[in-house]
Amino acid sequence: MRLVVDLNKCQGYAQCAFLAPDVFAMHGEESLVYNPRAEEELREKLAHAVAACPVQAITAEGPAGPGHTPGEPGQERSDGR
Ligand code: SF4
């Protein structure tokens, strides 16, 4: 699954690194490094990390199962005429 962290929003709280250390890691005090192509089996941990991010900086999209992408702000926009 694909993962995007909005590093402009990220405040380096490290909640994600705590909850999904296989995917996120802090590099220094504030900068976050992460694996943008996380393993499918880490989905559950990722969902926790997405939910725990205080600034909703993490978006996970994937070969979708049923349901919605956790933590995604309603940003779907159709260009209807
Ligand atoms: S939990 Fe959110 S704010 Fe904290 S390091 Fe992770 S992405 Fe950044």
UniProtKB/TrEMBL annotation:
Record flagged with keyword DNA damage: no
Cofactor: [3Fe-4S] cluster
Region (Disordered): 58-81
Protein's recorded name: Ferredoxin
Known role: Ferredoxins are iron-sulfur proteins that transfer electrons in a wide variety of metabolic reactions.
One Pfam family this sequence matches: Fer4_13
Membrane spanning stretches: none
Keywords, alphabetical: 3Fe-4S, Electron transport, Iron, Iron-sulfur, Metal-binding, Transport
Species the sequence originates in: Streptomyces yaanensis
